[in-house]
Write a structure and sequence with these properties.
Number of strands of chain A: 16
Distance between the termini of chain A: 38 Å
Helix content of chain A: 25-40%
Shape of chain A: elongated
Oligomer: homodimer
Number of domains of chain A: 2
Radius of gyration of chain A: 23 Å
Largest sheet of chain A: 8 strands, mixed
CATH topology of the largest domain in chain A: Aminopeptidase
Structural class of chain A: alpha/beta
Order of helices and strands of chain A: HHHEEEEEHEHHHEEHEEEHEHEEHEHEHH
Bound molecules: zinc ion
CATH architecture of the largest domain in chain A: 3-Layer(aba) Sandwich
Strand order of the largest sheet of chain A: 1-10-12-11-13-16-14-15
C-alpha cells in the first residue's frame, strides 16, 4: 500500500527527533506500546499526562496514515492522587504497601488512626450491625484466584467497587482492602471505587497481598491491630479529558464502519502497558495490517478512549456524539497475552463460522458465551444494538499486574503481542469486507 | 528426648498469649520463620526493631530448650532510613521506584536535582575522566542474570558496593544504580554500599529493573535525562546491636562444638523472610532434630548474628569474643530454596564421603569448590582455621527477592524449608558424633 508505506516513512521523519521508543524493525504495535509507555508514561484520567497522551496519539495516528483524526474533548470528575501511606502501629510497627482507590475520601496530612476490624469477606462486612464501625477502620479480605478468563474480577472486584461505601454506611472512619489481584508482590492494586449519592466518601485504600496476609495472620490471633492511614488525594470535578479517533476509509464510505476500541488513559502507579496501551497498539496495528493486500470495503475506525478507568467516561462521550450508524464493534482491554477464544454477538451464523474457521489454525477456540465488547464501546453497542466480536486474551496472569506499579513495558511478550495483531487482522479482513448488513443476535 | 518434648510444651505455654504465628503442627522451622517475620517484622541493623528481635530470639531459644542462651551486645555504625524518592523530570515526569543504599549520603528534604549521565557498566564509569561528573548524577547499569549458584552477585554486586564511591571520586553529586536483582518488579533492591575513608559519601540509590529499563531506553535515544533524588536517611554511629547464641550440649562437653550461623537482622523494606529468618529457622530446627534418637557427642551452638547486612559486625564480634576452640562451622544465609549441593573444606576425606553419601538420596550433589561458610562465621573460621561444610541452596530465584519489599513469608515454600532442615540434620548427625579431630583442608 503506497499510502501506508508513505505514512511509515513520514513517521520516521516526524518522530526522529522526538520519539525514543521506536523499534528499528518497524513493528507498529510494539512502537505504539513502547512509545505510549515511555514517551508519555502514566496517564491518569483528567491529568496533564492524559492531555499529553492525546497530543501524542493524534500525531501518531496522523503519521500512521489515519484520516479524520480528531480529539474529542469532555470533562470528568477525577481523582488527583496525593500521598498514600499506611502503617501498622500495633501489634508491631510495619509500613504497608498501600494505594488509595480512585474517589477515596481524603485524610488529614497526618492521616487517621484507629483500630482495625477484620472482615474475611464482603458478606461479613454487610452483616456488621449499623454503626458498629464508628471510629474504626474496616479491613476487607477476600479469596480471588487466577482464572484464564479473568472471571474472578467480577465478583471479588465488588470488594473494591462496593466495599468502601458499605463500610461508610456502617460509620467506619476508613477502609482498607486486600488488593484485587492474584500476585504475591508488595505492589498494591489501585482502581476506582464508588460512593453513591448520599454516602459519605471515606478514605479507602488497598494493600498488597503479602501485607493482607500479615494482617489476616494477626487477626486470626485475636490481637488488636492499630493502623495509621494517610491518603491525601482529592476527588476533583471538571477535569479535562477526551477521546482520540481516526479512520482508515473503506472502498465504500457509505457503509457503516467497523469500530475498534481501547483506552488511552491508565492508572498512575505503572505506565499502563497492559492496561491499556497494548489494546490501542493491537487494534491500530491490526487496522493497518488489514489494509495490506487490498483496501477493505468498509471503513475501520479506532477509538482511543479517555478516562475509562474512572467510570468509562470516554465510551459514554463517544456514544453520545456519534449517532451515525456503525456496523460492528470490538475492543481490546485485557492485556497483551495471546488470544485464546473468540465469542460473538452476531445474527449471521455463516459469518461467525467463517471468522471462527479463520482463527482455528492459530489455536483459537470458539466459546459459547455472548460477546459484549468492552467499557469503551459498550455504550454505542447498547444504543445502536451493534454486532460484536470478542477476541478473549489469556487472563491467567493479567491480575498479577492490573492497576499496579508493575504494569510496565517489560511485562509484554512481543510474540504474544504479534499474535494478537494477527488474530485481529484475520477478523478485520472478514468483517470489513462483508457487504451485507452485519447485525447483532436477535 | 524428654527435654526437647518438655521444651516444646513450655513453648506452647509461654507463647500462647504473645505469639500469633505458630503452626499448630508444631513445625519448629516454620514457627521461627513465621514468628520472626510476623511478630517482630523488619530488623534493620542497629534499630529498635533489631533490639526487639534479640529479646524475641532469646525467649524462643530458651523455650526451645537451648542452654547458655546469651545476648552479646556490640555497637555499630548504622544507617537510619529516611524518605526515599526519585522522579524523572525530563524527558517525561515519572516517579521511580527507588531505595537508598545503606551508608548513602544524605540529600536535603527537597532532594538534589541534576542531569543524569548513563554508564552501561561499572567499567564505563571507571573510565570517565576525573571531575567529569561535577554537578551530575551518575546512573550505573549492568547485566546481572540469574544463576543457580548465585554467582552473578559477586561481580555485578560491585556496582552497588563500589559504584557510589567511584562516582563520588569523579565528583558526581549523586548516584543511582540498576538494582542488583533478577526480577522484573517495581521493587528496588537495597543493600550496603561503601565509602572508604577519604571518599565523600554522596546520595546513592537503586531503582527497580523496570525503571532502569526505562532510563536505559531514554539514554539510548540521546535525550537529556533530569532527575530529582531525595534520600534523607543518615549514617549514624554507635547504634546498639548484638548476637544471640545458644547451645544444645553434647555428651562430651570437653569436645569443641559445632557452630551454626545465620543472621537475625534484615533489611527494612520487607520482613527478611528469606534473608535471613529462614536461615535461623533452618539451623535451629536442624540442631533440635539432630537430638532425636540420641544426644550427639558434641555440643551444637547456634549463632543468630546481628548487623550482618551492614558489614558483618556480628560475625566479627563473635570471633573476637569466642576464642575457645570450635570443631567446625556452617551457615545458612541464601534463602529457603532446596539444598542442591554440598561442598567441603575438610582434611578428612572419609568424613566428607560419609556426609556426601548421606545426602545423595535427597538428590544433593557434591561440588568441587571450597566451602567458606558465610559472613557470620567467616571471621571465626579464618581465625581458628576451622573445617566447613556448605549446604548450597538453589539461588535461581534468590535475587528476585533479595533486599526488596518482596522478601516476605509467603515467598517460602514449607516443603523446601523442610528439605533444608532434613539436609542439615543429616550433616549434624554425622559431624556432631565425630569423636576424632575435625580439621580444615591443609
Ligand atoms: Zn482497561
Ligand atoms: Zn483498568
Ligand atoms: Zn543475608
Ligand atoms: Zn542480605
Amino acid at each position: 500500500m503506497r499510502n501506508h508505506a508513505r505514512a511509515l516513512a513520514l513517521t520516521a521523519t516526524l518522530f526522529a527527533s522526538t520519539a525514543y521508543a521506536q523499534d528499528p524493525k518497524g513493528d507498529v504495535a510494539w512502537d505504539l506500546l513502547a512509545g505510549l509507555t515511555s514517551e508519555v508514561g502514566p496517564r491518569l484520567p483528567g491529568s496533564e499526562a492524559e492531555a499529553r497522551a492525546r497530543v501524542w496519539a493524534e500525531a501518531r495516528l496522523k503519521a500512521l496514515g489515519f484520516s479524520k483524526v480528531a480529539v474529542e474533548d469532555f470533562r470528568i470528575r477525577g481523582y488527583v492522587r496525593g500521598r498514600d501511606e499506611a502503617s501498622l502501629l500495633a501489634p508491631i510497627p510495619f509500613r504497608l504497601a498501600v494505594t488509595a482507590l480512585g474517589y477515596s475520601g481524603t485524610t488529614p496530612d497526618t492521616g487517621i488512626e484507629g483500630e482495625v476490624v477484620y472482615f474475611p469477606t464482603l458478606d461479613a462486612l454487610k452483616a456488621a450491625p449499623a454503626g458498629s464501625l464508628a471510629g474504626k477502620i474496616a479491613f476487607i479480605d477476600h479469596a480471588m484466584k487466577r482464572n484464564q478468563d479473568g472471571s474472578g474480577y467480577g465478583p471479588y472486584g465488588q470488594v473494591r467497587r462496593q466495599g468502601p461505601a458499605i463500610a461508610s454506611g456502617k460509620s467506619a472512619m476508613g477502609v482498607v482492602i486486600r488488593s484485587i489481584g492474584t500476585d504475591s508482590h508488595r505492589n498494591p492494586h489501585t482502581g476506582g471505587t464508588n460512593f453513591p449519592d448520599g454516602v459519605k466518601p471515606i478514605p479507602a485504600g488497598a494493600v498488597s497481598n503479602p501485607d493482607a496476609d500479615l494482617i489476616a495472620r494477626i487477626a486470626r490471633s485475636g490481637k488488636p491491630i492499630r493502623l495509621n492511614l494517610t491518603l491525601t488525594g482529592k476527588t476533583t470535578d471538571n477535569l479535562p479529558s477526551g477521546n482520540v479517533i481516526g479512520d482508515l476509509p473503506g472502498r465504500d464510505p457509505s457503509l457503516p464502519p467497523i469500530l475498534l476500541g481501547c483506552h488511552l488513559d491508565s492508572w498512575d502507579l505503572g505506565t499502563g502497558a497492559i492496561d491499556d496501551a497494548a489494546g490501542c497498539a493491537i487494534i491500530t496495528a491490526a487496522a493497518l495490517k488489514a489494509q495490506e493486500g487490498g483496501k477493505p470495503l468498509r471503513t475501520i475506525r479506532v477509538l482511543w478512549a479517555g478516562s475509562e478507568e474512572l467510570g468509562g467516561f470516554g465510551g459514554k462521550a463517544y456514544a453520545e456524539k456519534h449517532s451515525e450508524p456503525h456496523a460492528l464493534a470490538m475492543e481490546s482491554d485485557f492485556g497483551a497475552a495471546r488470544v485464546w477464544r473468540v465469542q460473538f454477538n452476531m445474527a449471521d451464523k455463516a459469518l461467525t463460522d467463517r471468522i471462527a474457521a479463520a482463527l482455528s489454525p492459530m489455536g483459537i477456540v470458539r466459546g459459547s458465551g455472548k460477546a459484549d465488547g468492552g467499557t469503551d464501546v459498550e455504550p454505542v453497542i447498547e444504543k445502536q444494538k451493534l454486532a460484536v466480536v470478542d477476541l478473549n486474551q489469556d487472563g491467567t496472569h493479567y491480575f498479577d499486574l492490573h492497576h499496579t506499579p508493575d504494569d510496565t513495558l517489560d511485562k509484554v511478550d512481543p510474540a504474544e503481542l504479534a499474535q494478537n495483531v494477527a488474530a485481529w487482522t484475520e477478523v478485520l479482513k472478514i468483517v470489513a469486507n462483508e457487504a451485507g448488513p452485519i447485525a447483532a443476535a436477535p
